[in-house]
Amino acid sequence: MTHVYAHTGYRQLVEAYAWQRMPKYLLRDRDGAYGPNFKGRMKAMGIRDRPISPRSPWQNPYAGRMIGSIRRDCLDHVIVFDERHLCRVLKLYQRYYNENRTHLLLDKDTPISRVVQFAGRIVSLPVLGGLHHQYARI
Length: 138
Description:
Largest sheet: 3 strands, parallel
């Protein structure tokens, strides 16, 4: 299950995923900036809206934790040159997070489940220019 946290308008959402597989869900707060245009665009893109519950500030830490993970695992270690570079780095991190990074909550699986490899030599494949590594059997 891929997730994306939104704090931008629908234009940014379209630009971020214009030519890629769309996320299934959008976790967002209930800010008035997410009006009918944003919700209509999301629905047209096939993204399910997941606003946090009304008057539930305790739910914001989940989104905050995701943003913190992006910062700690990625952006604190990268010099970003411009907006295009930032978008590319974030897309690579999103792919790493959903397809390669294991999560304890998911019993050490990834959000996009993968086949367990039992045989073969283990190799380390650099991700994000060597910032992280994917370990696979060949």
